[in-house]
Records
---
Amino acid sequence: MSAFLLATQTANITRSPAVSGGKVGPQVSHLTGLAMVPPMPVSSETFLAHPAHLRSPRKQWETFIFPTDDGGTASLPDVDGGDGLTWTEESRDYVIKGLARWDRGDSGLLTGRAFLHLLIEEVQIT
């Protein structure tokens, strides 16, 4: 059994274009079809506190994104904090709040594989 079997969903990444004339345009498609684990609620250790001035409720999730080829030789996708993430199968949008490369070395199902651990946030419209 491979940990890649957990990556049953796909994600698309959007990114803001470069600043032009002192303005930033809306996010545009950056990467598509990334293999990901379905988002899961974050644990209390991972939760990021929100500034008091934010009035809209927000829900935090975590997910994992794998290299695009199952051979593990591909580099990890170019994803950064502030990018948008769309969970394709559910048509839900998130903002990437944090990420870390996770190298597993000799750890059972993930031997020799690296993947991205993402902390994502969903704004709840009230």
Note: The chain has a mean pLDDT of 81.
---
Amino acid sequence: MKEKSLKLLTILKYLPILFFSTAVDNDFYFLYKYGEYIILNKSFPHNDFLTVNNPPIVLQQWLFGILSYFLYEIFGKIGIIIAQDIFAVLIIFSLYKLLYLITNKEITANCLSFLFSLPFVFFCTFRPLLVDILLGILMIYVILLYKKKNNSKVIFLLPIFSLLESNLHSSFLIFFFLIPIAFLMDFKEKHFDFKLFVNLPLMALFSLINPYGLEAVLYLKNSSSKYSTYIAEMNRSNILNIGGQIALICIILLIFSNKTKEKKSFPLILIFLGTFCLTIFAVKCTPFLIISTLLLIAENIKNLDDVKILKKFFGVYEIYIPIICIIILIFGLKNFSGIIEKEDFSFKKAVDYLEEIAPNSTLYTTFYTGNYSEFKGFICYSDARMETHLKKKNGVENSFEDNIELAEGIINYKEFLKENSFNYYLFDKAENSIFAKDVLENLEYEIIYEDDNAIIIKLL
């Protein structure tokens, strides 16, 4: 019965993937345009080609953009969703291998991997964060493999990871440097780990191998805003949001699993503390906290009997594991079946209509409406790339903050329209913008398109 349960557990940890989002993430649309530009022009842009103000730009996600472009061109939307799920499988499998390396027990590693895949449902969409998570797991795995198995060859994969990160996303590059530094601070070791230390300058050197050099490495410089918390994933974690709730659960799980008197891994404690701080500052870092928590739990329970682990997780596991598998399959397949029909945005029909009658026009857009509009070929006012549209970073325009202040009535709509003019204006009704209200109540315009969700107008 234990062998049958192990086989089901091996499958069970992947089944929550069926509940992952079947809508294309908003960021995909500008990533696609990045890839399209690079492939068609055979060059890397240094000014933004998607918005009217053309601020200086660093495409730190250029390689992920090319991946997005080819996936969509060849397979369409379903290719994006399947690629998202393939990344998820790779992440869960890599985490399983890492947990197995710590515990040397398949059942324990499978149970903990399943524990990760459940909350991962809320964070897994096709975007570069998936690459960050996968590379972070692989980096810890390589260092632990080097430490535990005395495999000195694998340690020189670390510079390759920094090279990949600097070309696929770059946002978590600094965190990647902190991982080997945490292991260098392992005071239980009698000798200084020179081989691991040598990798730090190599990682720095390899991270500079990208089309934008040092600019991509320092991408996060001046990338914060007083309105950063208007973006859900950039909110600070608290007990009222998912980041804070998961952080609390992680602490509780660590307390309950900490029943052994063995010395804990100091590097893993440091990584946990680092990911905990990251999660407090930004909800999007929560998957890293979950992973670091599971690594410490694995250390705590690695000497427990496998059957005890199964009973702690599933009770009468011979009955409940098959039942859980069946329930997840039934409801998960129902969710996944909506992959083609599901509308991704409330304003999609409005933008699609405008594309038919006035392609390639200039269009007033916001943080939420800009990405898909750019994907359809419009030259937009703003989009979801906060860092690109901060004046302290680009030196030209400040449309991210200006849009928020327009929506809240801080900037007068007449002053804005004196300095900015567009062929058309797209207003998503759900945004409840004061700017939209002022324009629609006080100015003369022609309605180009309107439904329950959005309105497109042309000022007269």
Note: The CA atoms of residues 197 and 329 lie 46 Å apart.
---
Amino acid sequence: MRRINEIKEKKSIKAISEASVNIKIIDKDDALLLSDLKAIQLYKDQGMFEDFLHDLKFSVMRGESWNKDELEYTREIKRLLNEGIIVKKGVYWWTSPHSPVYCAKKEGQIRINGKFYKFTKGEEITFQCRMAMEQRNLKAPLLIKKFKPTDNIMLCGEMKNSMKGM
């Protein structure tokens, strides 16, 4: 009987953590949803916030809402943070939307569109926009690996293969 209660408790904890961020309550039209607060402030300080916002809406989001996979990424990151599996590193990805970079405190996995993407302790995780996914032939809007620091920063619309004229 004790074993059954332990299994039920584990299942309920899992259900609570998965339900703690309901994908339906995430604002799919919030252009800043995946941007790090430090990056947002940088663009404000440089007087380029409107350019940044335009880039998010028309280059990163391609004039649409965030799609289901991108919203699932957001939900999964929140779940992993809540469970203490990952931590925010305090840095962000070099191209817009300049998403936070997270570091895995232990091994785990991210579920997007029914597929599981595993990571190990010490690996880093960040969001990848639609264009980056296409360029890197990624199946989900995330990149998992150990990243190298850079001082470069770029709007998505400035990239070589970006959509122009929107």
Note: Helices lie at 2-19, 37-45, 49-60, 68-82, 130-136.
---
Amino acid sequence: MEPIWFLNKALGIMSADQIAEIAPLIREVLGAPSKVTLCATFEVTGNSDAWAQVTATAINIAYPSEQEPQERLAALLSSSTCTGISDWEPMKFVTLTYGPDRPQAIARLIDGLLSELFQLNDYSVDASIEEL
């Protein structure tokens, strides 16, 4: 039997709030002038181990697993614009590259990744944006 957080996500329950928090900063990152590289950072409120960083071409996210991310995240990655895994270190991070897409779709991917990796259901994020 699937955990309740997985069933809620599969049914689209609880994701709308998280996507609404994440999407505006992604829109800003994607809309930056070509000479400016922005990075949005999202940290799950109350859990500093659960975080994601997003640039115009990559997502770097905390990875609390020894299992290869290609296996652990296969379902999420195959249904997104993710073009590959460029780097990863067990129990530390995984860096994903992605192709052009709408901010909502990228926010949905980040929500799915955070939910899957940290078994989150209803959560909030602290967000910031910086120029690299």
Note: The radius of gyration is 14 Å.
